[in-house]
Amino acid sequence: MADYDAIVCGGGSNGLAAAIRLAEAGWSVCLLEANDDLGGAARTLESTLPGFKHDFGAAFFPLVAPSPSIVGRDLAPYGLRFVHAQVPSAHPFPGNQAIALGRSAVETAASIDKVHLGDGAAWFALDEAYGEIMKPFLRAQMQRWPFEELAKVAGRLRLAGGLQFARMVVSGVSAVADRFESEQAKAFITGPAMHADLQPEEPGTGVYALLLSMLGQRFGMPVVEGGTGMITAALEAKARGDGVEILTGRRVDRIVVERGRAVAVEAGGEAFSARRAVLGALEVHDLVRLAGPESFPPRALAEIRHYRRGLGTFKVDWALDGQVPWAAEECRRAGVVHVGDSLTDMSRSAWEAAHGLLPAKPTLILGQQSLADPSRAPAGKHTLWGYAHVPAVPTGDAGRPGDEVSWDRSSEAFLERMEAGIEAHAPGFRDRVLARRAWSPVDLEAADASLAGGDISAGSFAVDQQLLFRPGPSWWRWGTPVKGLYLAGASVPPGAGVHGACGDLAARQALADHDRPRLLAMTAAGAAAVAAAALAGRRAARR
Fold first, then answer.
1. DSSP 260
2. Which three-class secondary structure string do you get for 4-38?
3. Which residues contact residue 463 at a Cβ distance below 8 angstroms, ignoring those fewer than 6 apart?
4. In the structure, how many helices (H) and strands (E) does the chain have?
5. N or C: the chain end with fewer CB closer than 10 Å?
6. Cβ contacts of residue 103 below 8 Å, gap of 6+?
């Protein structure tokens, strides 16, 4: 049996970040990955034609700026470089109009005022009230003890602003959108909220829209030069350099629990002993299955029984013979494009998906990575990346009521529906398509088991599945009810995204738990020494 201080299960960004943190602390670490390649959703594939590089999952990284596990380390020597399009994002509307998110409040407000004079002032007010708190607000969720970051947020907001912000955190996107008069501006601020798996009326979508907008304005929507897989390559190189043993093609069969403690992992017919900790960069239900439900108290199992998966995802890679011919100039310069003509349209699309229907007019999240990174396609060519939220298992089609639906029979028709949405704002788009590769929820799960049902967020981002309730009180702070077993996947805060923070925090918690007995012993010894010295001093004084 191979013997290590820690075994990490899962070789995505969270697993790699966890392994690096433990190795930096001097632990011997073995990382096990079921696939032949590391990265999970953070991979880059030539899925259409040779020379066209498409990000399999995550593509844009406004959340990386606060992340201590990636930006907090110098990964440039390992080939990691972020690049930007001219404009972070844009939202087209009928009539060849668009609103662009700029790199300053002045630029964004000016773009909004071009569509509806006066709404730019509402943007300035939002930026002034909340723009500077978004980085510490997010970074607070990436720290074990976020006192400094929360103090910055509280100091900026003060009491009245803090109450307004707290209300926004539990409100739908209308709490933000209602500040604008025009339907275009309302749709523009709603677009970023549609990255999540929620309907825009649901609690929590307001702060999600604001978070992506304000971070995008300050830090852009960067892509990785050469593809998202370069993040994985950089983390892998760093991990190996730190002494982590990485074994791919080793699907974990069992996490061995003895007398209430995780002690080993069985994978691919081999056993790997863990002297100190086992970290699972996995979805919480998978962790329970591998360790055995009998290893957990009934209360802990009850807490995750109703932990909900997010909506499914239908994702498409396009290889293009030229740039997307957007009618609105702003979209031709934007890294990210949100397609949804109105807040009502986007709300209807989300409602239909949440109720098992293929959306009749899906909201689209599109990425034009080759604008920022020409290496993604041959000279003169371009790539387009995009997705829409859909039910994992459709029960009907909102666009064609009465039709029988399944991903086997519905994928091509839904792809055509997505392309029609692009064509409406970019006439001639279809003529530029050289090849395309569609990924239904079934395809995504087949390529990466962690994307069960096409859920790209490891559980819904609903407000009742955040913080203490992600995934439940017994699992909070990256530990589990089983000693020495830690949850390092996106089922714990801060949740989904290629930031590595979930794995990094689980590793920090494992280190803290291991050091606690020694620190307590040292503290007790120190206190005893102080007490003995004080007693000796009193005796000497009596003499």
1. T
2. EEEEEECCEHHHHHHHHHHHHCCCCEEEECCCCCC
3. 169, 170, 202, 203, 204
4. 16, 20
5. C
6. 88, 217, 218, 220
* Of the candidates 207, 223, 194, the residue with the CA atom closest to the CA atom of residue 62: 223
Closest CA to 336 of 385, 299, 291: 385
User: Considering only CA atoms, which of 363, 323, 402 is closest in space to residue 198?
Assistant: 363
pLDDT in tens, the chain (543 residues): 789 999 999 999 999 999 999 999 999 999 999 999 999 989 999 999 999 999 999 899 887 766 666 656 778 899 899 999 999 999 999 999 999 999 999 999 999 999 999 999 999 999 998 888 888 887 777 777 777 777 888 887 776 677 777 777 788 898 889 999 999 999 999 999 999 899 999 988 988 899 899 999 999 999 999 999 999 999 999 999 999 999 999 999 999 999 999 999 999 899 999 999 999 999 999 999 999 999 999 999 999 998 889 999 999 999 999 999 999 999 999 999 999 999 999 999 999 999 999 999 999 999 999 999 999 999 999 999 999 999 999 999 999 998 999 999 999 999 999 999 999 999 999 999 999 999 999 999 999 888 999 999 888 888 888 877 888 888 888 999 999 999 999 888 888 878 888 999 999 999 999 986 654 544 454 555 555 555 656 666 666
Could you give the CA distance from residue 6 to residue 315 in angstroms, rounded to a whole number?
35
Sign of CA dihedral 297, 299, 303, 305: positive
**416-436 CB burial, b ≥16 within 10 A, e <16:** ebbbebbeebbeebeebbeeb
**What's the DSSP call for residue 225?**
T
Angle of helix 119-130 relative to helix 105-115, nearest 10 degrees, comes to 150
Q: Do 240 and 246 contact (CB within 8 A), yes or no?
A: yes
Q: Tally the residues of the chain.
A: 543
CA distance to 4, 7, 74, 159, 495, per residue, from 29 (Å): 6, 6, 21, 46, 24
At 396, which amino acid appears?
A: G
DSSP tag of 204: T
One DSSP character per residue, 337-390 reads EEE-SSHHHHHHHHHHHHTTEE-SS--EEEE-HHHH-GGGSSTT-EEEEEEEEE
> Which residue in 469, 491, 432, 84 sits closest to 282, CA to CA?
491
Beta-bridged to residue 342, according to DSSP, are none
pTM of model > 0.70: yes
Q: Nearest-CA neighbor of 66 among 193, 156, 153?
A: 153
What the block records as the tokens of 305 is 């029984």
Cβ-proximal residues to 431 (8 Å cutoff; 6+ apart), any chain: none
